[in-house]
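SEQUENCE-TO-STRUCTURE ENTRY
===========================
What this section holds: a protein sequence and its matching fold, both as plain text.
Question of interest: how does this chain fold, as expressed in backbone structure tokens?
***
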Amino acid sequence: SLYAVKHNIFGQPHLAIPRYDSNTTPKRIERLLVAAIIIVLILRLQLVRYRGVIIMITWREHNIHTPQSNGDNDYDSDGEKAFVFNLFDDVADKTLTYKFKSKSSAIDITITLTGREQMCTSTGLAVWGGAETLCNYFLEEHDTDNPTEIFRRGRSRVLELGAGLGLCGLFTAKAFEPGEVMLSDGDVDVLERLQKNIEQNATSSRTTVSCAQLVWGQNLDAFEEEHGKFDVIIASECMYMTPSLQTIWQTVNHLLAESNGVFLYVHQASSQVPNEKVLEMATHCGFVWTTSLSYPLVHLFRRKKI
């Protein structure tokens, strides 16, 4: 094979295309370049280096450096400044409106978000379908005769992981009015939109809504020291890359309240990680789960009682 998907020291995939030689026909090179461009467009990969005719493409999931760093993290393994070409910087934000109304009309909510319409332009600045699924699951649970009472009005502390534009967390704040909802993400560009979306969606005085940077698996002791543990953690479509599977469960296990803590997660998008792997890791971390007939891909996890 002329090219192969490999993993760098962070467990992230990159596609390496070798140098041209006399045995490689121009048509084959052309096909390889077209394939590389398609991968860039589909997987939000970024062209980071060009040297001669060698092309390396690498996944850059989190823009976790601060704006003041001026991209100081953009260095390759040799310590050389990498050439960074971002295909998605010129895509403008739009106003996105989501309406939710329960059958009993007890919940009638409109949420306005600033972000991108398409996921292909950014994984964090657009709303994934799983986020809407989780909100609709909450609506159905609210309308049942015996709703799952996991959000205590004015009391529960809720954390959303990989919040993106914050749809699920803002819905939770408006619909259930817990004591606190914290929206978290690792990307500083996402956090800017999160803050704006919090400001343009008024919530009850019972509920404090905020956002904070949280990179899964990193600095968890410091995060807990500053923000404490949470009664409920929610997330949607976060475990779509293999490297994120262990770090997200590590984060949940560290920040979820020991007593009666609940983790709600929806996993429905096609991804590198099948649902079975998510549940396998849950078992490894000591969690059990339940699902509903209407929403089989929404899992409610609790720690297994010993």
